[in-house]
Amino acid sequence: MQSIKVFIITILSTIIISCGNSNTQKSNLSITTNAKNNVVSLGETVKLSIKNPNGVEISSVDYKLNGEPVDASFMLDDQLLGTQTVNATVKVGDSSEEISTTLTILNNQSPKVFGYKIINEYPHDITSYTQGLEFHNGELYESTGQYGESKLRKVDYKTGEVLKNTDLPDQYFGEGLTILDNKIYQLTWQENIGFVYDVETFEKKSSFTYGKSKEGWGICNDGEHIYKSDGTEQIWLLDPETLTEDSKIQVYTNKGKIVGINELEYVNGKIYANRYQKNGVAIINPENGAIEGVIDFSPLHKLVTQHAGLDVLNGIAYNPQSKTLFITGKRWDKLFEVEVFEK
């Protein structure tokens, strides 16, 4: 009997020990880089490695930057700026682990400074809370904001005469506009909806929701793609057919991100954008989000009628016929035609 008891205790002990060791210990693998705080600039070389504190046996590692394969050591050349994702597939024995980290990529050049020359001044409706401005076939289109005041207009820019107007319902705060394939795309602010109109009749044809972004601020197009800002450092690329936010760029300098990106205008391969509550304009590379230039339009604010409702610059339109920019602001009584040059 004693021998049977010893046998049973031995068997139970073996089972307990086996059960206790059946849980695989966490490997605690992580991705490390050679960059301080994982911040790097274009032109620099990134070196990736796996931190392996438990000393597990690693047979292979495959790295990806934003889903594209990269070597453990690679140079940043034409990558997107901003916060990007680095993934690693690590093979440990017969299994594999997926781990990730983030890499913040800065531009490697500071923005160039541009100046401007006023060519003409035209009258502008002092009551218009301008949000979007764009030329189409030589005519100026404008979107305005504020609840109960928002509208879509076609304007004779030389006289300020309103040629066509439609008011938005009071529950919508109008934001930016752009025109593509004879359709006007107008955003609203926090209502998560944009409207599509016939450019000739202003008849509302359809609407669309934003999807990944929470707000609508500025919008422009390059003839193929539609770009949309949401008040952060992000500019979303919309599919022109479905209007879904398929991808994005992040607006960065050589120092860091620039938030408050607002009204947008596409000009000769670049995106011109003003920042909310600022009287300047950034010139952005739409390929990677780099701010390549800045224009200080602050002096224009002093050239308009000063009144209690006067607000900041907001309204950038490029006229391809004259090859000049047109600048105005919220409740400004003037529209400025300017030439821009690098200082």
Structure in words:
The chain has 343 residues and is mostly beta strands. It folds into two domains: 27-106, Immunoglobulin-like, CATH 2.60.40.10; 112-342, YVTN repeat-like/Quinoprotein amine dehydrogenase (Methylamine Dehydrogenase, Chain H, 7 Propeller). 7% of the residues lie in helices and 51% in strands. The chain contains two helices and 28 strands. The strands form six sheets. Strands 22-23-24-25-9-28-27-26 form an eight-stranded mixed β-sheet. It has a five-stranded mixed β-sheet with strand order 2-8-7-4-5, with no helix packed on it. β4 (58-65) and β5 form a beta hairpin. The longest helix is centred in the first third of the chain and has 19 residues, at 2-20. The radius of gyration is 28 Å and the shape is elongated. It starts with a helix and ends with a strand.
The CATH topology name of the largest domain reads Methylamine Dehydrogenase, Chain H
Second rung of CATH, namely the architecture of the largest domain? 7 Propeller
What portion of the residues fall into strands of 2 or more residues? over 45%
- Count of helix runs: 2
Structural class: mainly beta
Rg: 28 Å
Unreliable stretches covering 5 or more consecutive residues: 1-24
The ordered H/E elements are: HEEEEEEEEEEEEEEEEEEEEEEEEEHEEE
Give the biggest beta sheet: 8 strands, mixed
Principal-axes geometry comes out as elongated
Please give the domain count: 2
Mean pLDDT: 90
- The CATH first-level class of the largest domain comes to Mainly Beta
User: What is the count of β-strands?
Assistant: 28
- Percent of residues in helices: under 10%
Can you identify the CATH superfamily of the largest domain?
YVTN repeat-like/Quinoprotein amine dehydrogenase
Strand order, sheet with most strands: 22-23-24-25-9-28-27-26
Please give the alpha-carbon distance between the first and last residues. Answer: 101 Å
